Amino acid sequence: MKFTGYIGTYDSFESFGIYQFVFDDNTGRLSEPSLFYKTKGGKCVAIADDKILFTKESSAKSGITLIDNKTNSLSELLTEKASPCFIAFHDNNIYTANYHDGVVMIYKVNGNNLQIIKRLSMGNEAGCHQVLLLHNLLFVPCLNLDCVNIYDAANDFSLTGKITFSAGTGPRHGVFTSDEKRLYLVSELSNELFYFKLQPDKSWQLMKQLPIWLKGTANASAAIRLSQDERFIYISTRGDNILSVFSISDNIPEQIQQVSCGGDHPRDFLLSPSGSYLLVVNRLSNNLLSMHIDKSSGLITAIIDSTTVHEGVGITLKQGGI
User: Fold this and answer.
1) Which family does it belong to (predicted)?
2) Cα separation, 184 vs 195, whole angstroms
3) Burial class of residue 200, CB neighbours in 10 A (0-12, 13-18, 19+)
């Protein structure tokens, strides 16, 4: 089956916004990316049905753009100082996290228009890196505050809880399991994997804390993905340019592999819908790679295909070719 991929990029003299490519989930093959939409600040991109969402900068303002392919319409709302580093769509709402502004923005899609629902401020340079959604709760990892703030959308997005970490940990990205009782989270600064379990009192108890990379000197872990069968965790680490694989037994992760990312600076990656491939964008080496996964062992076994994309940051897929 074929999928259309979208890649957000940092601005440079060779990258100009959002790029698209075709990925074959049967063979692992990639087409050469082409420019989909020219923009500044197009780092992050997300897909929702026929809608394509991405971050944008224009005239010293930043925010989001929405393209509806079904109605052939475009909407944008630029209310932030710096470009967000995360964007997601859920239940007709759009969520962004802004590392430098230290804010999370919640937007609503109203027909062909965007409107702001809420602005959650954590302070300048708080390092907000993601918005994790769990029913009516928003979990926001704040890298520079060493915490995950928890907000309740059912109570006007009030701060309802917090997961704290040791100074210098730098929580960055996390994933929930399908039973919604386990949270796996990666830290950027301490390069660790954390496993939390939901308790009867609705608090999250730390069950396991594991180092990701012991030998490196310039590591900075970034993205985390959970396999569909929830047997394996995958993590990218920049600086040392590695992908790490953890197996999960009785909910406890254990590292089973570390391999080269096939380039320099693996900012983001994803697992293909079939679970047979890992697609990684290496920002500084300007390449996109398809890597085969042995689904029984979870191990990354080979590089299948590679193509050029400059300054790749975020990546997403939707079903169907271009």
Assistant:
1) Belongs to the cycloisomerase 2 family.
2) 5
3) exposed
- Bridge partners for 249 per DSSP: 252
CB 278 within 8 A of CB 304: no
Q: What are the distances in angstroms from CA 53 to CA 43, 64, 89, 167, 311?
A: 11, 7, 8, 34, 19
Summarize pLDDT for 20-41 with one digit per residue, the tens.
999 999 999 999 999 999 999 9
Residue 66 contacts residue 53 (beta carbons within 8 Å): yes
Identify the pLDDT of residue 213: 76
Alpha carbon distance 305, 134 (integer Å): 35
Give pLDDT tens digits for 265-318.
999 999 999 999 999 999 999 999 999 999 999 999 999 999 999 999 999 999
Q: How is the chain split among helix, strand and coil, in percent rounded to 5?
A: 0, 60, 35
Domains parsed from the chain with CATH numbers: 2-319 (2.130.10.10)
Place 218 in a pLDDT band, splitting at 50, 70 and 90: low
Tokens at residue 221, please? 């872990």
